[in-house]
């Protein structure tokens, strides 16, 4: 199972979860959603896409506080059969630590999605896959790339082969050349 963790309501996290489900993965969404019609629509869209949300918290509209490390830890303990964890906003160190600890239980792979220009957080395992999201993803090409990669990892594909196959399939997203 793939678990997409959205600690702070980052745009695109739900799209990653939907893309992973469309690529054949069993997916659970962990986040905090407003307790209003917009939150209802988001949860309905996730469910219609085959994404579970049993560990998603509801909160007052407009005041959705980010998930905290204990929330993430509890969700990942509840979703104990996860094999691939995707963290969409690693800006909160304790939240990332909870995801790293869960991935360290020997259950699988960790994908960390940084915002454009965000610094890689300390404490990530060497085998974590770190991707930088574009500042905008209007056609959800990046979300599809991340979701497809997560589904391939969840299916047991070697990380290098999964990344290469996903990049070969990517349509309208191009990686940044860090070498020059």
Summed up, the domain count is 1
Mean pLDDT across residues: 84
- Spatial separation of the terminal alpha carbons: 37 Å
How many strands?
7
Question: Which sheet architecture does the biggest sheet show?
Answer: 7 strands, parallel
What is the top-level CATH class? Alpha Beta
* Order of helix and strand elements from N to C terminus: EHEHEEHEHEEHH
Could you say what the CATH topology is called?
Answer: UDP-N-acetylmuramoyl-L-alanine:D-glutamate ligase
Q: In CATH terms, what is the architecture?
A: 3-Layer(aba) Sandwich
Helix content: 40-55%
Poorly predicted residue ranges: none
Give the overall shape, derived from the CA principal axes.
globular
Strand content: 15-25%
Secondary structural class: alpha/beta
Helix count from the secondary structure assignment: 6
Structural features, described:
The chain has helices at residues 13-22, 37-48, 69-78, 93-107, 141-154, 159-169; strands spanning 2-6, 27-34, 51-52, 57-59, 84-87, 109-114, 129-132. The chain is α/β, with parallel strands linked by helices. The protein has a single domain (2-167), classed as UDP-N-acetylmuramoyl-L-alanine:D-glutamate ligase. The termini are far apart. Helix 3 packs parallel to helix 4 (93-107). It is built from six helices and seven strands; from the N terminus they run βαβαββαβαββαα. Strands 1, 2, 3, 4, 5, 6 and 7 form a seven-stranded parallel β-sheet that branches. The protein is 40% helix and 18% strand. Strand 5 (84-87), helix 4 and strand 6 form a beta-alpha-beta unit. The radius of gyration is 15 Å and the shape is globular.
